[in-house]
Amino acid sequence: MSFTSQSGFDVRFEWGERGLRALAGESKVFAIVDVLSFTTCVAIACARGAEVLPYPWRDDGAETYAAARGARVAAPRGTAGALSLSPESLLGLERGAKLVLPSPNGSELSFAAAELGTVYGGALRNAASVAAALARRPGPVAVIAAGERWPDGSLRLALEDLLGAGAIIANLHGTVSPEAELARDAWLRTAPRLERALAECASGRELRERGFARDVELAAELDRSPIAPRLDAGAFAAERAP
Fold this sequence. Notes:
alpha/beta, putative 2-phosphosulfolactate phosphatase, 6-stranded mixed beta sheet, 3-stranded parallel beta sheet
């Protein structure tokens, strides 16, 4: 279905794995956006000199996968004193650490994207840096919002990922598809009240009600982690600017 490729535009935008694969026929450079919380975790960890290895959610092979790569597997979110999908838990992550961080959205999507081209982990914390890295790559770029899940497992379009994608797109030049333009415009409209928007959107409210208000605050810190995590040999690490 060539009409789904957003052909003819330099900057493209879609949702989830089906959107990723729809754009992958022409785009070979991707930014995966999962603001609450996978790619915010990636931004924090990589800024500290650590590596994050994406892995499919609920796959029993995570421990074996980690052991083969000299990594450890993240604990369930909220495990006291443990590294997890909570961005706050990674604030003290040591340089050189390797963490397998499964999640049902951003991590699983990144794992799938690895075979399709060059992949960056984008969030609000590193939007400008990721956009700069994308701009250095030839060909059209695709920004992919991971979204969340409804109880039946279907994709739920998530405001935080629309804003994270829009923040990246707003820093890119070239022709912009209507889909990408919508994400950019949503970001520009919401940016002046970003903290409130993240706190009050469905995903932000969920995390705050579960006791993870600090994670929402960390996700809203625009360009606080000025690095572009690139997925290479199965691990996200900060890309060195030329």
